[in-house]
Amino acid sequence: MPAQPPAWRSLPLPAVLAAALLILLLSWAGPVRADTTAAAAAFRCDGDPLSARLVPGAMDEPGIPDPTSGPVPVGGFVVLQWRDLSLQLPRTNNAGPASFTDGKWWWSLEDPAHPRFRLRRSRGDVQDFACEAAT
Length: 135
Fold this sequence. Notes:
single chain, mainly beta, 4-stranded antiparallel β-sheet, about 15% helix
């Protein structure tokens, strides 16, 4: 009885190439660092406590070139806990101080003592929440 070919041989060539590329990319990624999260910072927004935990990405690493000189590396994100909300907002590629948005919510650290926290509502208008660092 002849041996059966491996299962991957019955897959279409593009699927095999994509799987091989994924394995190659994952092998180059290296280990995930356990120390990438910072302690949560405490704020008050519209009178209610807000916790912001920054999770840095490659864009935040020392030695990464200025993003204006080429492709932007993967950025980090911020996790906000406020009222009954838990938001994970990815870092934007905007120049200047770190800002984070999912297109609806926006968090910016232009002034760390008074961060900007905004909500784009369904009507298209923007609601600003007054925030300040908790003491």
